[in-house]
Amino acid sequence: MNRASQLAVFADSDPQNPDRLCDLLDEWLVAGNIEQALARIHAAPSSLQQLPGVRFRQARCALVRGDRKEAIELLQALLAGGEASFGVVHDLAYAQFADGTLDTALQTLAHVSAHGEDASVLALLKARILHRQQRFEAAIEALAPVQAGARLPEAQGLRALLWLDLGDTERASAEAERALGVDPDQHEAGIVRGTVALWSQRGEASTEAFEHVLATHPDSGRAWLGLGQDAMLRGDVARARSLLERASVQMPEHLGTWHALAWCQLLQGDLSGARRSFDKAFALDRTFGETHGGFALVHALRGERQEAQESVKRATRLDPQGRSARYAQSVLLLDEGRVEEARAVIDNIVARTPGVGVLPADFVFRLRDLVRPRS
Q1: Burial class of residue 335 (count of CB atoms within 10 Å of its CB; 0-12, 13-18, 19+)
Q2: pLDDT > 70: percent of the chain
Q3: How far, in Å, are 152, 185, 186, 194, 298 from residue 191 at the CA level?
Q4: What's the predicted TM-score (pTM) here?
Q5: Domain-by-domain residue ranges, the chain?
């Protein structure tokens, strides 16, 4: 008889005992037997169902099933009733984080303090919330309490990703390698390794790193994004689009994914698809210059001159160094027959920002001819 079966016998022999019921529920939760645990809760006497410990485990079942609304309702009621235990506060903040109510999640975390490994768990969750808010320095500061223990590689990997998002590839790489030295499957550290390789145009190393991440984290949006960018670097636009579409499903809140997908669609001559992707990016951040530059380029490629010029103005006001607005300007100059000026605009981009994602003038010119073939 396995442990779950033994606990079930104990619970059956004393159906009014909340401790025995909770022990059994915990065993099933660890084993992933969520439906079995829920059935047991619903079959328990109503006096047990209303106990905080049982309600807490019901909320955990809801979380695992992806029912964040039910989990939040159950946990908020427990917190309001004075049940401010570590588990209740952590799970409620996590559910709110997953639900996208980030400020509320941070407020929830303030209800509890912790020590030892619990402090590391709370620090990691707070850092992830701050990361989602793009408060990168604050997220790094939040990880300070994690100095040792089983969660250290996770903290190092997350810190590496934060340094990467701040543009400090040297510190990001060093921290990622420390994490991978202890845990070769650490998610964020693997993302950093792959991304740094991608930015260095080491395609084989980048692909290997991202595929390794996906072997253990198949829902990693940033790994799918990295593989998509790898495919773009190799010129395999069709595969890149497929990979980036997968990335957009996994992390629809990630601005860069929608931009990368829009560029794939542009390179395929799919202006309507590109416009939809830029619209998704715009819904996330209305002040990002490259999104307005993307709108400008779509308008320019469609021959919508006035709309393109207006979008170029908005884009360059928000980001004077933005690439997409410059590509749009080049297309507008090309429409006027000012070929050398159009080429000079793009040559300036290439000289200023060489590397991944920079398109040469001839490519932009061919793209214009693809979507607006000459009569």
Answers
A1: middle
A2: 93
A3: 17, 10, 9, 5, 31
A4: 0.84
A5: 1-112, 119-218, 286-375
- CATH class of the region 286-375: mainly alpha
CA–CA separation, 246 and 35 (whole Å): 29
Question: How far, in Å, CA of 294 to CA of 361, rounded?
Answer: 17
Check residue 375 and give its pLDDT. 40
pLDDT tens for 265-274 read 998 989 999 9
Q: What is the CATH number of domain 1-112?
A: 1.25.40.10
According to the CATH classification, is domain 119-218 in 1.25.40.10?
Answer: yes
Residue 142 CA, chain-centre distance (Å), reads 19
Q: What is the 3-state secondary structure (H, E, C) of 272-331?
A: HHHHHHHHHHHHHCCCCHHHHHHHHHHHHHHCCHHHHHHHHHHHHHHCCCCHHHHHHHHH
Q: Dump the DSSP string for 185-209.
A: T-HHHHHHHHHHHHHTT-HHHHHHH
